[in-house]
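Q: How would the structure tokens look for this protein?
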Amino acid sequence: MIRARSIEHTWRDASREVRCLNGLDLELEAGEFCCLRGVSGSGKTTLLLALGGMLRPTEGSVQIGDEDLYSLSSGARARARAREIGFVFQMFHLVPYLTARENLLAVRSKLGKPAREARADELLESVGLTDRADHRPAALSAGERQRVAVCRALFNNPTLVLADEPTGNLDPDSAAVVLDLLTQYTAQGGVVLMATHSETPESRASRTLWLREGTLHTT
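A: Here is the predicted structure in token form.
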């Protein structure tokens, strides 16, 4: 289970404060595919970063299993993040000078070298990219880059995948492939929380949550 309790976050600059998360609670169970909707600026990305151990909330706690992410040291939190959480972004964020296979091998993992290489090859084969494994991101289509990014997120068989508009830059066919991958992952017991502006992923979701005025609402 992933559990967030009383999450608040306030962005501050020299002239003002903006509270984008306001006492938010969330529980996600194994096998759940949850869509997160909301207008631009509603705090969807802030929530994903907080849940992923990337942004300490102003108040509140985030727990994955028995582990409270923000009670850990920064080093222990980074290790927990690498072990338990995968991230998929709209703009892919692949390392441009590494090949598709090398991008997967760059994932922090406890696996030894032979097992890491076997895992990378297995994932690339599963998404039909074996013949593209030695290509750098610039030589891949947007859909191929996003498939590599999903494979990277799944490399360590994480508990949770946080996806921020992962189909926003893709054509419908490529988007369907990415959604298939994430749906298969939840069928195996993983958890997906996907922030999206599109209605399309909702057909795959077990539920949809709307972020409004810093709190979550079920449709």
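The two ends are 22 Å apart (CA to CA).

Residues 2 and 23 are 16 Å apart (CA to CA).

Upvote if useful.
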